[in-house]
């Protein structure tokens, strides 16, 4: 390829640190009969310590009780894991009592019902919650909160006030950043699906690698220091993988999208460091945290040290700016089991609850950890991104202790042609939009 | 442990504290170790002990005080509302629930002239205010009738009386009554049997002293008496086999569960009360006012319903036996009838138990205290109705026997009558409808026991009656099931594990209450009792015929008729031809099929043709009486009945009343707004319907109270005629010749319905034609026989007689549901796979109209089965173990398995009464089916291959072919022998003999070639990505299943922070859960080979 410009842009560089991912990695852990109770137990234990420390300033005059210690009519603070009892929640057992009803009872995308109610549980017991201070529409199973209220005669706990853990503390953001440096976030390439347009992705790759546009544009491209692909990079027909040996024709259809992806990644990795996270449709395991896509899938790109196959969720530091993100499953699940005006509200909530995926393991598949809950958010990221959303959206969230977080919904690239660029200097972000449509006049 | 300590001892009688302070407070103060006194540290220990004693003293006293307080607050919470002071000045009104009779000294005040023993009726009930009532009714005497021999006059009667009295004295030597036969009166009555022209005959009403004497007197009269002037004579007795209580109710116009009033001044209160009821009084039977269940009196009194469940700690390998195993927990819920939430929720536990929110946990140190606390609860709460699941057969007898084993004399005083001990006796119940059932009868006087398992058994046909599957069926929730071997472990743990058990026990006590509410049992049963007039307790304990008999007696009494005592002629009368079924023209109908139904066919026939005992003309009379032909009907079966113009039958009258009452109830139901009122009315209309239909059965029950096959065979013969006639009329009228578009065709007809294909392909057109046909044909029948058009099936799959499936339409816009009959989706000895496959196929064929799709689905499932990809839980077959293996004459799969399991591990092997789940495995050639059964868990653990051919041939093929044969050519070849059946995969068992010698070697993931290291062989290297994708997607699938299954189990058990313990083998996901866990481990291991 010929370089025809006078000036050679030098790509900027940032220090990358991915140690954050360690907690999402599952090594040597096996399914040996462990159950999900442990993960809840750890979650409750850690969150309770935290909430207990907040309780004296929140409600100084109130005693702190366990569910068992409740006494009728006595006001107190209790801490526990919420459980949302949902009428419409799909249940494995339904498969066994299938009587097809004439009209489907449930909208497939949301299982909310006005009768849903919340229950608070700690290791000693559970109590039904009443009162309007705690809306069942907002909360989901698995969130740990502190509640102020009292037990009623009916044996329910009447909630007067709710305390969430709130934003976690944040590492200090470097202030000496002078230059604009961009991180490109994208998701939902869906190579192999009908909606994916190969040219669109090629344009993006060319842009990143500086093969596109005039000098100014190339100058911008040179400021891209890192690329993150947040899940669902490929898509292939599930029915091909049913345990039977494939005909050679099918072998290629199976492999084709991955090969294509590998070629593209190869191009990116040659110029800039790239992280790839697995998503729901990728050839990775199902349960969160999803483990890195196997390197054997990327014979072309994996030799580059700029290419990293990462976990989902994924967290890393870039020039001491902390990123945390998922391929979107956690937010999609919240969307099914709770309500919010915008997807960013869900994202914000998870941060306030200090938990990436409260619905795991309840409705979101999850590895049965025995000693930890990797989804607890102990430090507040500077950039918190979620992949595979319908549309692009972002919000700057300010915490009570001066935390500053950029929340980003990354749209599906194959549907929108949009990637997101975040400026490390000031956390501003904008979209990179690519279209292959020729205006049909 | 901050909630009121855990040990609630009853306060000791004196102030001196007990010597040993052993309190099971979880983090308790070091307990003085009595057992270690022989140690050398005795001195040190002693000092310490003293301190502990001192410390303990204060603690003890305050605890005792608290105990007393608690007891008092508990008692006040449990007790019934206090009696209003004015009650003695009012008339007493109450709803009675239980009626029985006793024999006691007759009441001197009410019956001044009498002396000696007399029968006394006891009615137990509740007032509107919720006060319990016991009413003693005096003066009602047992009696029966005989026909007066011709020529016997008043003088002869006193002679007859003397002879009878003498004979009675001979055969009842022990009775302490001054006079056996109280009175013999001449009355004018008529026998219900056969049409008679004369108005009445003379009967003798014989009144005896005690109810038991009716039978002995009847015996004497049956055998015959020597009477001067008449010679040796035997007598046909009338109404001599009627239960005394029922006799009383009939004569006083009392029906089960109605309101009774005793006016002011008509009742007496004794100084010494005999019962624990709040109100107790005595009255004469003639002073009772019985209110019909209308208006204010149709309501229900606030009955107290106690739902309870016990847990016992069985020994390993044995089902709990009262002789050995302690009762460790009793959970109780008390609910006021009509309210949503229980007002008492408690659990009594042996040894400490951590508190439970909203539940009063009462812990005791000894079993004796637990049992006595329960007795106190019964005494204080004073429940009217005791419910539970299998309480009659298990819980109640267990408690009684356990108390007897422990020698707790004061325990079995659970009834409402003072000093009356509860007894348990074995009982068998047999009825034609139910078959023979063995049970135990525990009489708790004044309290109505309602065992949900009996009621559900009676009213619903289910594949399993375990509480788990019953609640899954009706409440659609699975119940956590703790195996009884775990129960003992939980009990021997700490306060927390016992709490776990208590929560489980409470749930078992709560479910019967929820079932009771959901199925409206109280309303339905009370209404049934009111409609049929029998006490409520009869409804569960006795068959159908007593209900009809009660109605018949009431009606006969009004008409001055008497019922002869049926000779137990047994099979002599033989059988008669039953209902007709028109030949089914099997096939798959893709045009709407209209269904014409006769509404209440048999009752209508009896009404239309005036069929009754009293309208039947004997063949002899037909010749003799010379009745004008316009006044008689000859039925198709050849019997003669007179028409209404000569004599109206009382069966038709009863039926008419029942059906009009039902119409009224249904109309009221539409009007009703109050949900409780609705419940009552709906229960009533249902009861009325069932009662109307059981009248026919009563006449046909050859071993029943009053069989009359002339009636029942006439009914069925008319039924047959009507079906035939309908078919003819439809096929004659709806023809192209008659101006219709197509020729109508009757494709099938059952007892009371006819299926017609009018040929039109539009649902609405078929409905219109159906309506027209119904109207046209109804016009040709005698009222009230009526043909109704209600529904259309479209499409309709007619498999054969009594077996069909179709989509049911009652309006032309949208079908209502899929209706199937006789298609074995619920048979017990089928595995779930069959049910799912049949349901899915029917859905595809009928709803989606996709026959190829249905066939494809079947093929895929069969292929999955052969390839060993079917979820094991779908293959599990379950059978109840009724006796041990040796006792089975024919070797059975489950019996053999139980034996084998016992040899492996006696602790977890199924016992008699358990349900044994098994799968059929591959075994040596020629092995018998019963040798091939295996425990599903064992199969999972050892990778034992199942036998797909067994499932294919013995389980799936028949039901599937039945469905597919009408819709698919060569169904058998296509579905069961296609190319999809060629590839087979069988797992290698890990425990079979030869595998012990096998060496495991690494093989290529791609082609299974042995390799020395790595993942793939050289030739598969190029397919690395593809093979990895396959492997990882397998893991992904399993992970998803794993997550869903285990979280579901967490949900069922109702706790996120505790491990799932449930081992319910009735639960469909139990094996799947086990398998998911195992598969997951294997798959991950496989996947880990890729990481290099």
From TrEMBL, chain A:
Gene3D superfamilies: 2.40.50.430, 3.60.21.50. Residues 183-392 form the DNA polymerase alpha/delta/epsilon subunit B domain. The keyword Transferase applies. Its EC number is 2.7.7.7. It is found in: Nucleus. It catalyses: DNA(n) + a 2'-deoxyribonucleoside 5'-triphosphate = DNA(n+1) + diphosphate. It holds the Pfam family DNA_pol_D_N. Keywords: DNA replication, DNA-directed DNA polymerase, Nucleotidyltransferase, Nucleus, Transferase. GO terms for biological process: DNA strand elongation involved in DNA replication; mitotic DNA replication. Residues 35-162 form the DNA polymerase delta subunit OB-fold domain. One of its GO terms (molecular function) is DNA-directed DNA polymerase activity. The keyword Nucleus applies. Its main location: nucleus. One of its GO terms (cellular component) is delta DNA polymerase complex. Belongs to the DNA polymerase delta/II small subunit family. The function of the small subunit is not yet clear. Heterodimer with subunits of 125 kDa and 50 kDa. This is DNA polymerase delta small subunit. It comes from Arabidopsis lyrata subsp. lyrata (Lyre-leaved rock-cress).
From TrEMBL, chain B:
It catalyses: DNA(n) + a 2'-deoxyribonucleoside 5'-triphosphate = DNA(n+1) + diphosphate. The keyword NADP does not apply. It is found in: Nucleus. Residues 534-967 form the DNA-directed DNA polymerase family B multifunctional domain. Pfam families: DNA_pol_B, DNA_pol_B_exo1, POL3_N, zf-C4pol. Residues 1-11 have a biased composition (Basic residues). Keywords: 4Fe-4S, DNA replication, DNA-binding, DNA-directed DNA polymerase, Exonuclease, Hydrolase, Iron, Iron-sulfur, Metal-binding, Nuclease, Nucleotidyltransferase, Nucleus, Transferase, Zinc, Zinc-finger. One of its GO terms (cellular component) is delta DNA polymerase complex. It is an enzyme of class 2 (transferase). Coiled coil: none annotated. Residues 236-470 form the DNA-directed DNA polymerase family B exonuclease domain. SMART domains: POLBc. InterPro entries: DNA-dir_DNA_pol_B (IPR006172), DNA-dir_DNA_pol_B_CS (IPR017964), DNA-dir_DNA_pol_B_exonuc (IPR006133), DNA-dir_DNA_pol_B_multi_dom (IPR006134), DNA/RNA_pol_sf (IPR043502), DNA_pol_B_thumb (IPR042087), DNA_pol_palm_dom_sf (IPR023211), DNA_pol_type-B (IPR050240). Heterodimer with subunits of 125 kDa and 50 kDa. The 125 kDa subunit contains the polymerase active site and most likely the active site for the 3'-5' exonuclease activity. This is DNA polymerase. The lineage of its organism: Eukaryota, Viridiplantae, Streptophyta, Embryophyta, Tracheophyta.
């Amino acid at each position: 390829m010929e370089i025809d410009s006078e000036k050679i842009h030098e790509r900027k560089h940032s220090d990358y640190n991915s140690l954050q991912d360690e907690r999402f990695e599952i090594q040597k852990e096996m399914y040996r009969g462990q159950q999900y109770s442990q993960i809840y137990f750890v979650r409750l234990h850690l969150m309770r310590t935290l909430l207990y420390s907040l309780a004296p300033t929140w409600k100084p005059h109130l005693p702190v009780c366990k569910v068992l210690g409740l006494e009728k009519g006595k006001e107190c603070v209790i801490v526990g894991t919420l459980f949302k009892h949902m009428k419409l929640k799909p249940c494995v057992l339904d498969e066994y009592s299938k009587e097809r009803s004439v009209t489907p009872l449930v909208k497939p995308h949301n299982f909310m019902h006005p009768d849903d109610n919340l229950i608070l549980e700690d290791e000693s017991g559970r109590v039904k919650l009443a009162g309007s201070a705690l809306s069942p529409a907002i909360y989901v199973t698995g969130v740990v909160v502190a509640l102020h209220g009292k037990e009623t005669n009916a044996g329910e706990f009447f909630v007067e006030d709710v305390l969430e853990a709130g934003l976690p503390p944040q590492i200090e953001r470097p202030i000496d950043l002078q230059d604009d440096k961009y991180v490109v976030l994208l998701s939902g390439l869906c190579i192999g699906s009908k909606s994916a347009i190969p040219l669109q992705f090629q344009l993006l790759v060319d842009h990143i690698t500086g093969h596109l546009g005039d000098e100014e544009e190339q100058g911008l491209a040179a400021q891209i220091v890192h690329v993150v692909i947040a899940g669902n990079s490929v898509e292939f027909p599930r029915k091909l993988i049913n345990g039977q040996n494939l005909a050679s024709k099918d072998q290629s259809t199976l492999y084709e999208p991955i090969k294509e992806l590998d070629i593209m990644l190869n191009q990116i990795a040659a110029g800039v460091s790239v992280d790839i996270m697995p998503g729901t449709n990728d050839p990775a395991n199902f349960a969160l945290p999803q483990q890195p896509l196997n390197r054997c899938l990327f014979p072309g790109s994996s030799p580059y040290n700029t290419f990293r196959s990462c976990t989902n969720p994924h967290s890393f530091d870039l020039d001491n700016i902390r990123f945390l993100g998922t391929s979107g499953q956690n937010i999609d699940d919240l969307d099914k089991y709770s309500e919010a005006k915008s997807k960013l509200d869900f994202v914000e909530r998870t941060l306030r609850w200090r938990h990436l995926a409260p619905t795991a393991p309840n409705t979101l598949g999850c590895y049965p950890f025995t000693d930890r809950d990797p989804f607890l958010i102990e430090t507040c990221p500077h950039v918190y991104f979620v992949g595979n959303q319908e549309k692009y959206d972002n919000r700057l969230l300010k915490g009570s202790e001066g935390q500053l977080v950029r929340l980003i919904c990354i749209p599906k690239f194959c549907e929108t042609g949009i990637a997101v660029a975040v400026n490390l200097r000031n956390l501003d972000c904008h979209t990179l939009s690519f279209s292959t449509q020729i205006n049909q006049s | 442990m901050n909630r009121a300590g855990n040990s609630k001892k009853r306060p000791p009688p004196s102030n001196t504290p007990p010597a040993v302070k052993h309190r099971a407070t979880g983090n308790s103060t070091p307990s003085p170790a009595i057992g270690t006194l022989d140690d050398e540290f005795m001195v040190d220990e002693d000092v310490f002990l003293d301190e502990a004693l001192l410390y303990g003293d204060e603690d003890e006293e305050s605890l005792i005080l608290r105990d007393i307080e608690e007891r008092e607050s508990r008692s006040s919470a449990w007790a019934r509302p206090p009696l209003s002071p004015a009650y003695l000045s009012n008339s007493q009104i109450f709803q009675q629930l239980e009626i029985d009779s006793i024999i006691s000294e007759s009441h001197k005040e009410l019956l001044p002239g009498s002396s000696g023993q007399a029968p006394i009726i006891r009615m137990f009930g509740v007032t509107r205010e919720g006060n319990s009532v016991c009413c003693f009714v005096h003066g009602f005497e047992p009696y029966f009738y005989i026909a007066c021999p011709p020529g016997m006059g008043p003088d002869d009667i006193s002679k007859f009386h003397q002879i009878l009295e003498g004979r009675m004295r001979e055969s009842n030597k022990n009775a302490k009554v001054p006079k056996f036969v109280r009175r013999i009166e001449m009355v004018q009555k008529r026998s219900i049997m056969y049409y008679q022209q004369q108005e009445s005959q003379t009967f003798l009403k014989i009144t005896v002293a005690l109810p038991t004497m009716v039978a002995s007197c009847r015996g004497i009269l049956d055998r015959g008496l020597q009477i001067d002037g008449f010679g040796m004579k035997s007598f046909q007795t009338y109404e001599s086999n009627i239960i005394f209580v029922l006799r009383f109710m009939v004569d006083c116009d009392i029906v089960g569960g109605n309101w009774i009033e005793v006016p002011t001044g008509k009742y007496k209160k004794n100084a010494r009360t005999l019962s624990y009821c709040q109100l107790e009084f005595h009255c004469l039977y003639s002073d009772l006012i019985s209110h019909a269940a209308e208006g204010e009196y149709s309501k229900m009194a606030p009955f107290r319903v106690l739902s309870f469940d016990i847990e016992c700690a069985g020994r390993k390998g044995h089902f709990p036996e009262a002789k050995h195993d302690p009762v460790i927990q009793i959970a109780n819920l008390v609910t006021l009838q009509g309210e949503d939430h229980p007002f008492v929720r408690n659990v009594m536990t042996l040894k400490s138990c951590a508190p439970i929110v909203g539940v009063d946990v009462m812990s005791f140190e000894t079993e004796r205290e637990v049992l006595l606390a329960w007795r106190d609860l019964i005494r204080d709460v004073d429940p009217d109705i005791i419910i539970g699941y299998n309480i009659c057969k298990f819980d109640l007898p267990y408690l009684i026997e356990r108390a007897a084993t422990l020698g707790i004399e004061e325990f079995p005083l659970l009834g409402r009558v003072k000093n009356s001990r509860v007894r348990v006796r074995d009982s068998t119940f047999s009825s034609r409808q139910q078959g023979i059932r063995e049970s135990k009868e525990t009489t708790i006087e004044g309290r109505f026991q309602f065992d949900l398992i009996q009621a559900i058994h009676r009213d619903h046909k289910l594949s399993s009656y375990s509480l788990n599957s019953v609640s899954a069926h009706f409440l659609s929730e699975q119940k956590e099931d703790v195996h009884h071997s775990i129960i003992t472990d939980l009990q021997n743990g700490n306060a927390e594990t016992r709490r776990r058990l208590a929560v489980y026990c409470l749930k078992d006590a709560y479910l019967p209450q929820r079932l009771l509410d959901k199925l409206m049992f109280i309303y339905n049963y009370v209404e049934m009792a009111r409609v049929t007039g029998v006490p409520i307790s009869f409804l569960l304990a006795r068959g159908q015929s007593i209900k009809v008999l009660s109605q018949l007696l009431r009606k006969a009494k009004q008409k001055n008729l008497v019922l002869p005592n049926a000779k137990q002629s047994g099979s002599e009368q033989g059988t008669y031809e039953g209902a007709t079924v028109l030949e089914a023209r099997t096939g798959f109908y893709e045009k709407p099929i209209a269904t014409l139904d006769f509404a209440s066919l048999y009752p209508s026939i009896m009404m239309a043709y005036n069929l009754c005992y009293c309208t039947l003309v004997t063949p002899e009379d037909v010749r003799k009486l010379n009745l004008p032909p316009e006044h008689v009907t000859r039925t198709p079966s050849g019997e003669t009945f007179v028409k209404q113009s000569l004599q109206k039958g009382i069966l038709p009258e009863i039926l008419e009343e029942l059906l009009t009452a039902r119409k009224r109830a249904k109309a009221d139901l539409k009007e009703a707004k109050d949900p409780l009122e609705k419940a009552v009315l709906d229960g009533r209309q249902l009861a009325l319907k069932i009662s109307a239909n059981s009248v026919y059965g009563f006449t046909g029950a050859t071993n029943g109270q009053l069989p009359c096959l002339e009636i029942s065979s006439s009914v069925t013969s008319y039924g047959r005629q009507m079906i035939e006639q309908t078919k003819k009329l439809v096929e004659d009228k709806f023809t192209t010749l008659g101006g219709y578009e197509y020729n109508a065709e009757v494709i099938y007809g059952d007892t009371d319905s006819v299926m017609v294909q009018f040929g039109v392909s539009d649902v609405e057109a078929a409905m219109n034609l159906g309506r027209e046909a119904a109207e046209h044909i109804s016009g040709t029948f005698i009222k009230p026989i009526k043909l109704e058009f209600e529904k259309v099936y479209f499409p309709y799959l007619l498999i054969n007689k009594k077996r069909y499936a179709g989509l049911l339409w009652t309006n032309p816009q949208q079908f209502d549901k899929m209706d199937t009959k006789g298609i074995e989706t619920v048979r017990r000895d089928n595995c779930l796979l069959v049910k799912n496959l049949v349901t899915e196929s029917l859905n595809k064929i009928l709803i989606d109209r996709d026959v190829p799709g249905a066939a494809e689905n079947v093929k895929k499932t069969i292929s999955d089965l052969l390839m060993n990809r079917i979820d094991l839980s779908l293959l599990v077959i379950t059978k109840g173990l009724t006796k041990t293996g040796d006792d089975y004459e024919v070797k059975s799969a489950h019996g053999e398995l139980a034996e084998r399991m016992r040899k492996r591990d006696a602790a977890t092997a199924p016992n008699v009464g358990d349900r044994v789940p098994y799968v059929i495995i591959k075994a040596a050639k020629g092995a018998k089916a019963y040798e091939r059964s295996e425990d599903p868990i064992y199969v999972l653990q050892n990778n034992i291959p199942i036998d797909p051919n067994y499932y294919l041939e013995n389980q799936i093929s028949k039901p599937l072919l039945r469905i597919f044969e009408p819709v698919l050519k060569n169904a058998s070849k296509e579905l069961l022998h296609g190319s999809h059946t060629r590839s087979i995969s069988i797992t290698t068992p890990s425990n079979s003999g030869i595998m012990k010698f096998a060496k495991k070697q690494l093989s290529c993931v791609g082609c299974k070639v042995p390799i020395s290291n790595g993942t793939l062989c050289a030739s598969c290297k190029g397919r690395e990505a593809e093979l990895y994708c396959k492997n990882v997607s397998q893991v992904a699938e399993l992970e998803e299943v794993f997550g869903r299954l285990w979280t579901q189990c967490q949900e069922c058990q109702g706790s996120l922070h505790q491990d799932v313990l449930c081992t319910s083998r009735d639960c469909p996901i139990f094996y799947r859960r086990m398998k998911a866990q195992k598969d997951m481990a294997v798959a991950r291991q496989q996947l880990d080979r890729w990481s290099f």
